[in-house]
Design brief:
heterodimer; A: 391 residues; alpha/beta; four-stranded parallel beta sheet; 17% strand; B: 317 residues; two-stranded antiparallel ribbon; 1% strand
């Protein structure tokens, strides 16, 4: 046999072996398939691994319990490259070629919107695992797509609640927001709420991806804000923080929405002390469901889960509840998800008539030492107030 | 075969392939395969639009994604105002054509890199303007109120890809095409023999932009929803350029081969090597650009010619 021919043969044998090792054993019931679009490559790639682990843990647990109606479940994942056009093609592939019963959602509004378009046409339910931006449910009617992540409309809720409890002396609040739909909607909600609380508020918009906030910091100082809330993405938030430190401007309370992420500590070091944030879920959450999930996750992967893994697991739980009740009838699953309160590791899943998440909101966090602790509402942790001076 | 003959033959083959592709929705082919065919035609038509100006004249454009985006926005605004579909598409082509005059009438008077820089700035500028424009929905973008069946954009895109391919072939073998190629190879000499190079370049860029605008219009009907950061992402301009580069710049078949390979390779590698597929495709594109300067079509034509040259004497004995 010639060398290339032998190589081809070896490759063939290897491929068959791999298929045999990973495939569903012959004779087992056909699996119920679910499809997930993950941003494994591209600008949203940070979270993909944690989402995949959440799905895997959920599927393994269901299969250990004997599956759903005797059928095992299988989550098929593909990489959407963080691009809507790729998401659109892979939604077609998952629906058409893999025959999935339910789609589990991708990251970012444009990709969720792209997959929703394909799913609405094909009438397949989509659980938007990590879609926080509720505006895609505002701009058009999505019948088959549901938000499973806390909506970003309430980004500033925990911060304002703490302000009401602790910051009686504070009269002026500055809100910085990105000129992007999610951030604008969150700002509008916060403006109304703050006015209702009797606060004087000013809002400062910036272009997506901005890094220079010096003029905004000067305007905030001139306004005399005692508390600052930043509602944009992570990189601009870090830039704004650094420029506030540079300027020597130290508000009594400072909040930015993605502050709870571990990377904040790496970027800002000791300066994080007292910075408030918000989180969809934390492994230190004191609910039985959260504790059971965190323990199972640690046993399987050897570390504490992030909120990404928790949301993925919760999306699985929503699909599981619907399929247990309705089998694999997609229309019945859709109706069930649209109208039912479903307990998950995130809290109770419940969507409004538009499909937006109303069941669970964000929890407030604060950097205390080297951890972002849950503070306020029902938490035993004391809040550090006011924020200590920059170091 | 004569040049006119080969153009006619190419046109016949293109029309036949286009007819088959357009008929797929009614031949029971799965919607996944149709989506792939759609995307191949989308990139093909966009690549041909780029090919028309940049492949033929050598003036490299980085704005074809933005021109398609202008077409998309114009069409969605027109259709939401209850215009008929044909008028909506015409609005997209016209808007992109007009926008091209803004870049072309100034920068195409100059030679060299001025045009390329103008297109790069244009791409960024349009995104900034659209994000601020309330009529264009601001940062939240626009939604097409009516959801059209996918067969409409599908057939339109297949037809557009075929028409654009034939247009490039027809131009290449026409008298005007010879003048355009003269500009590409030596613009000073072309002007010296009486070719009005500025006028020709502006006219071709305008036609190219109108095709790009139409591509955007049809894609807008396909996706039904526009986000400025996605529609005006620089990636789309890069695909418009990569597709002809893979297949062969300045040839009619280049973007056809390029688009089919681009879409096909990405699908195959995404299943075979998940997570690595973009790297693999990127390396393959790099290899083509480095080792096949005239693209796959050019390299294949040369290999064919070499074989014939060596084979003919042997057969003749």
């Amino acid at each position: 046999m010639t060398d290339p021919a032998r190589r081809t043969l070896l490759l063939g044998v290897a491929a068959v072996a791999v298929l045999a090792a990973t495939g569903v054993p012959a004779g087992a019931a056909d699996p119920i398939r679910l499809g997930a679009s993950l941003s494994v490559t591209g600008r949203f790639s940070d979270a993909a691994k944690y989402l995949q682990e959440g799905y895997q843990l959920w599927a393994d647990e269901v299969n250990q319990r004997g599956g759903i109606g005797g059928q095992p479940v299988q989550v098929i994942t593909y990489d959407d490259e963080s691009k809507p056009d790729s998401g659109r093609i892979l939604a077609e592939r998952l629906i058409d070629r893999d025959g999935v019963t339910v789609l589990l959602g991708p990251y970012s509004s444009p990709i969720t919107d792209a997959i929703a378009t394909a799913a609405e046409r094909a009438q397949v339910p989509v659980i938007g695992t990590i879609a926080s931006d509720s505006s895609i449910w505002e701009r058009r009617k999505l019948r088959w797509t549901f938000q499973a992540f806390p909506t970003s409309d309430y980004d500033h809720e925990g911060f304002l609640r703490l302000l009401g409890e602790k910051g009686k002396a504070i009269k002026k609040v500055a809100i910085v927001y990105e000129e992007a739909p999610f951030s604008i909607r969150a700002k509008d909600w916060a403006l109304a709420k703050a006015k209702e609380m009797g606060l004087t508020v000013e809002a400062y918009g910036y272009n997506p991806g901005a890094q220079d906030f010096r003029s905004i910091v000067e305007r905030i100082v001139a306004f005399g804000a005692e508390a600052v809330a930043m509602g944009g993405y992570y990189q601009p938030s870090v830039a704004l923080t650094r420029q506030m430190i540079e300027r020597g401007y130290n508000p009594q309370a400072y909040f930015f929405i993605q502050a709870a992420d571990g990377v904040t500590r790496e970027a800002l070091g000791q300066q994080t002390e007292g910075i408030l944030g918000r989180s969809a879920w934390e492994p230190t959450l004191e609910t039985p469901a959260a504790r059971a999930f965190a323990d199972a996750y640690r046993a399987k992967f050897g570390r504490l889960p992030s909120y990404h893994s928790a949301t993925a697991y919760a999306a699985g739980q929503v699909a599981e509840a619907a399929m247990k009740a309705k089998g694999t009838d997609r229309a019945a699953i859709r109706d069930y998800i649209a109208t039912t309160a479903i307990p998950t590791v995130m809290g109770t899943f419940k969507v409004n008539a538009k499909g937006q998440q109303e069941g669970y909101h964000y929890i407030a966090t604060q950097w205390q030492g080297d951890t972002a602790r849950i503070v306020g509402e029902g938490s035993a942790n004391a809040v550090i107030w006011p924020k200590p001076a920059w170091k | 075969m004569s040049r006119a003959g080969s153009t006619a033959a190419l046109a016949a083959v293109t029309v036949a392939l286009g007819a088959v592709a357009a008929a797929l929705p009614w031949l029971g082919v799965s919607s996944y395969v149709r989506t792939l065919v759609y995307y191949a035609c989308y990139y093909m038509a966009l690549g041909q639009a780029w090919n028309l100006i940049s492949g033929m004249t050598g003036y490299v454009s980085f704005a074809h994604g933005a021109l398609a985006g202008i077409g998309a926005y114009a069409t969605v605004i027109a259709l939401n105002a209850q215009w008929p579909v044909a008028a909506g598409l015409a609005a997209g082509a016209a808007a992109a054509g007009l926008a091209s005059l803004v870049i072309g009438a100034t920068s195409l008077r100059l030679r060299g890199a001025a045009f390329t820089f103008a297109t790069l700035f244009f791409q960024e500028l349009v995104l900034l303007i659209v994000r601020k424009l309330p009529a264009a929905g601001g940062p939240g973008g626009l939604v097409l109120q009516e959801i059209y069946p996918t067969s409409l954009p599908y057939v339109l895109m297949v037809v557009l890809a075929a028409v654009a391919t034939i247009a490039v072939a027809a131009l290449r073998f026409s008298r005007t095409g010879v003048r355009v190629l003269a500009i590409k190879h030596d613009e000073t000499a072309a002007v010296a023999i009486g070719i009005d190079s500025t006028r020709l370049k502006v006219a071709i860029f305008c036609a190219s932009a109108a095709i790009a605008g139409l591509v955007g219009s049809i894609h807008a009907i396909f996706v039904g929803s526009l986000f400025p950061d996605v529609v005006f992402a620089v990636e789309i301009s890069l695909i418009a350029l990569a597709v002809p580069l893979i297949g062969g710049v300045g040839t009619a078949m280049g973007p056809v081969v390029g688009a089919l390979l681009y879409v096909g390779m990405r699908e195959v590698f995404q299943v075979v090597a998940p997570g690595l597929h973009l790297t693999i495709v990127g390396l393959l594109i790099l290899a083509v650009v480095l080792f096949m300067r005239d693209g796959i079509v050019g390299a294949a034509a040369r290999a064919w010619a070499t074989r014939r040259r060596t084979a003919v004497p042997a057969e003749g004995g």
